[in-house]
Amino acid sequence: MTPLLIVIAGAVVTLAFVLGWRLLARRASLPCPTACLWLLENRMMERVAGAELLLDRAGVQPGMTVLDAGCGPGRLTIPLAARVGPAGQVVAVDLQSAMLERLQARLESHALRNVRALRAALGAGLLPAGTFDRAFLVTVLGEIPDRLAALREIRAALKPGGVLSLTEVFPDPHYQSRQSVRRLAEAAGFRMVEAFGSWRAFTVNLARPE
């Protein structure tokens, strides 16, 4: 098989996998398994939704307390911990213990001590109220069975004036359109502050009213 055919075959297999997973995701809100981390950590994702770009969009500053909701293995958590510094804190939440185990290994390799990992389902009411300056939901919203409950919980967990920075990237299997995000956010009591990007990859910053 020639190199060109290998590339084409790989692209076809990847497209078939993504489309199949997206069809399945419409029937059930399934979290991304560890075997599919390549969907989250790759050059394309880094180009359109790199960690430093998202932190800049959200205005993360040293000393802040930040929630990484649906943190996975820490693609955002590690840069967040470095950005907020020793005076700040990151709470990293994920439903899957395997993801949190990978995160813990990365934290140890980076010698970071300002991250608290929490295994919890978003919307279950386990987040501390009025705690966070910033919160992140990056390609996670569509994986949550009760999205409105999750957004309401995050809103309550933010300090008044705190911001939820929510990012969606197509063709993520759980991709949510900007219109869907805005509708849910307004129902949860958020106020739209600003938006970045296009329909292919966008970030919206949503504030908890003061």
- Strand order across the largest sheet: 3-2-1-4-5-7-6
The class by helix and strand makeup works out as alpha/beta
CATH topology of the largest domain: Rossmann fold
Specify the CATH class of the largest domain: Alpha Beta
Largest sheet: 7 strands, mixed
- Count of discrete structural domains: 2
How would you describe the overall organization of this protein?
The chain has 210 residues and is α/β, with parallel strands linked by helices. It folds into two domains: 1-30; 31-207, Rossmann fold (3-Layer(aba) Sandwich). The chain is built from seven helices and seven strands. A seven-stranded mixed beta sheet has the order 3-2-1-4-5-7-6, with helices on both faces. Helix 5 links the parallel strand 2 and strand 3. It is globular and about 40 Å long.
Label this structure with key terms:
7 helices, alpha/beta, seven-stranded mixed beta sheet, 7 strands, 39% helix, 210 residues, Rossmann fold, 24% strand, globular
